[in-house]
Structure formats: C-alpha cells, structure tokens
Write a structure and sequence with these properties.
Length: about 100
C-alpha cells in the first residue's frame, strides 16, 4: 500500500508541474485527486499498522511465561580468602582540615 501511495505522489507531482506549465485546470484536478487518494492510503496504512502492533503486543504478553527467580548463592558470601580493608581518611593539603573526626 505504501508503494501505491508513493506512485500516486509521483503522479500528483507530475500533474502539478504539467498543470502549472500548461495552465490546464483538468490536470490540476488530477493532481488534487491523486494527492487526496495517496493521503487516504497513508492514513489507512498507519491505522492498520497501529492495530497490528497492539494485537501483536497483547499476544506476546499473554504467551510470555513468568520468569523464575534467580537462585541465591550462599557460598559467594562465605569466601574465606576475602580480606577486609579499612580505609582511613587522611588530611591532605586541599581539604583544609575538613576530614577530622
């Protein structure tokens, strides 16, 4: 349908140029008709695409299975080789003594 609308746009443009050059009223009306039909086809196509998108989204949501929760790894937290490091705040020349406890 989009290809038909594109062809109508080309026909409308050609009719417009011809109508301006020849000052023919009939060709001007052909231009207007081709443009109107093209716009209607674009609107119909957009409405179809929107309704198709909504219907497809509803089907995907209905068919989606609930995800299983991730398993908790207790061994990850009980790592015996892990070291704990204490970081002390030191006063540097830029802090102006603001880091004193």
């Amino acid at each position: 349908m989009l290809i038909v609308a594109l062809v109508l746009a080309v026909i409308g443009l050609a009719a417009l140029v011809t109508a301006v050059v020849t000052s023919n009223e009939l060709i001007a009306w052909v231009c207007i008709a081709a443009s109107a039909v093209g716009v209607l086809l674009l609107i119909v196509d957009a409405v179809r695409e929107r309704s198709r998108g909504r219907a497809g989204g509803a089907e995907e949501e209905a068919s989606a299975e609930p995800a299983e929760p991730a398993e908790f790894d207790a061994e990850y937290l009980q790592d015996e080789d892990a070291e704990t490091t204490v970081v002390e705040q030191t006063e540097d020349e830029y802090s102006g003594g603001e880091n004193k406890p």
